[in-house]
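Page 42, continued from yesterday. The earlier attempt failed because a stray header line got pasted into the input along with the sequence. Redoing it now with the clean sequence only.
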Amino acid sequence: MRILVAAVGRFGTGSGKAGAERALFDEYVRRMTTPVSLKEIEEKRPLTPEALMKSEAEKLSAAIPKGAVTVALDAGGKQLGSEDLARQFQHWFNQGVKDVAFVIGGAEGLDPSVTAQASLRLSLGPMIWPHMLVRVMLMEQIYRAQCILSGHPYHRA
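This time it went through. Structure tokens are written below.
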């Protein structure tokens, strides 16, 4: 199974440096036994919030592999514990899923067209997190799910 993280914005935008968030994201990717890729998209044109969300939705949708299970990170989505997320990965694996795409929106959130197409809407909780940290937190939980499924002691630490 391959994992894609498709996200609005780029690590390092603003200061021009990737920084600690990118280093942490990359560290969790390095630990994975499953292939993980990151696709970052940007819309540079000045648009209304509604038009911006639409444009981002089109770009995110284009990044998702055909036939992939799509997971939309959404504040109104389902909150899963780490073991529950691991069980979800096991279910996808048992179903023969080849690609899982996690989609992270921009400051305006995800367009309803993206969340409507998602197999799962996932929330990291009711708090608001910076989008770059969301990538790291998500990647850590994906790695933790892998550890749970393989019996690795990381999860118990």
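Notes: The chain has a mean pLDDT of 94.
Reminder to self: strip header lines before submitting.
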